Amino acid sequence: MASPWKADRVRSATTTIFAEMSALALSTGSINLGQGFPDTDGPDFMLETARQAIADGINQYPPGRGIQSLRQAVVDHTSRHYGLHYDADLEVLVTTGATEALAAAILAFVNPGDEVVALEPFYDSYAASIDLAGGTRVGVGLFGPDFVLDLAEFERAFTAHTKMVLINSPHNPTGAVLPPEQLAEIARICVDHDVLVVCDEVYEHLVYDDATHVPLASYPGMRERTVRISSSGKTFSATGWKIGWALAPAELITEITAVKQFLTYVSGAPFQPAIARALNEGDDWVAELRVDLQRKRDLLAEGLRSMGLSPALPRGTYFMTTDVRPLGYHDGLEFCRELPGRCGVVAIPHQVFYDNTAAGAPYVRWAFCKRDEVLEQAVERLAKLG
């Protein structure tokens, strides 16, 4: 008998598949290249600052918008890297990871009947938050094999009901980084249609080769309509700390704060001074991380090629995509379910990130943010498929 209390409003195929893949990893002793979290820690000075903060008694509620030193560090970091200037007291909100910032922004501004234009495949929390707000998501395909945005399709997605645009670059799960010329056109379209824009920039520093991350807020007419969201989790390999932030004009931050205070209220008191220090002093560490991740990307790509796959080399994030049809599969979900038993490796099927599941069906996502020995062992195991 179905439970009378079962929630029907929000469904997350990704949550179900991630749980299934994690269970398969445990039951088969597989290497988990599915879920995207590193298996090494961030800089030692950051970790020590958190330990000291706990010892110093910084364990109670921090200020609602985040401690002042962290808000100032976020502002200084943004100015230093992008030449964008914000007021640390009025235009910054510290959140429980980027996920909460995204949820609070969507819930603050999207009403039932509003449409949200977003790049498909979607990071899973977008769909859930839009559903919770009663909005309708309108996907614009960033589809394989090239994962390139069609600007004409993007502009056609706008209607009289479009309230918000959600841009994720560097893009999870494809690893695409929108180039400056496309961002300029996106900015023009958003200004022409007078819409609010939310930018998920959590992988802002994890870009490779000649790719550059340029915030959409830096284009003409965009700062006043853009909520920039980022997080320490990806930049400083501290995904479990859940320290994120939103930057936006004061009136937008006020509305987002009004929602945020009824989600988690506040969080991460001893982690906030540690992230403030990391933002202020960690540029060199992040630069080394970027070089190391690019090398890991190439290591995994070489291994995937050796088994007959042609990875779409990501220009950002720490995820890589392959089409599994060369191995005789037409369904990435079937492939991922059989992979642990066949060779002891776990990946994630792309289709769980799509409304148009057929577009994602043959693709699989692999995480390369793991120690070299883990990636090398995974490649050895995957060779059994060749």
Structure at a glance:
42% of the residues lie in helices and 15% in strands. By secondary structure, the protein is α/β, with parallel strands linked by helices.
Write structural notes for this entry.
The protein is α/β, with parallel strands linked by helices. The chain folds into two domains: 13-42 and 284-385, Aspartate Aminotransferase, domain 1; 44-281, Type I PLP-dependent aspartate aminotransferase-like (Major domain) (Aspartate Aminotransferase, domain 2), CATH 3.40.640. It has helices spanning 13-28, 44-55, 68-82, 97-109, 124-133, 151-156, 180-193, 232-235, 250-260, 271-281, 283-306, 332-343, 357-360, 372-382; strands at residues 31-32, 92-96, 115-120, 136-141, 162-168, 196-200, 226-231, 243-247, 319-323, 345-346, 348-349, 363-367. A seven-stranded mixed beta sheet has the order 2-8-7-6-5-3-4, with helices on both faces. A three-stranded antiparallel beta sheet has the order 9-12-11. The longest helix is centred in the C-terminal third of the chain and has 24 residues, at 283-306. This is N-succinyldiaminopimelate aminotransferase. GO terms for molecular function: succinyldiaminopimelate transaminase activity. Its cofactor is pyridoxal 5'-phosphate. Residues 31-382 form the Aminotransferase class I/classII large domain.
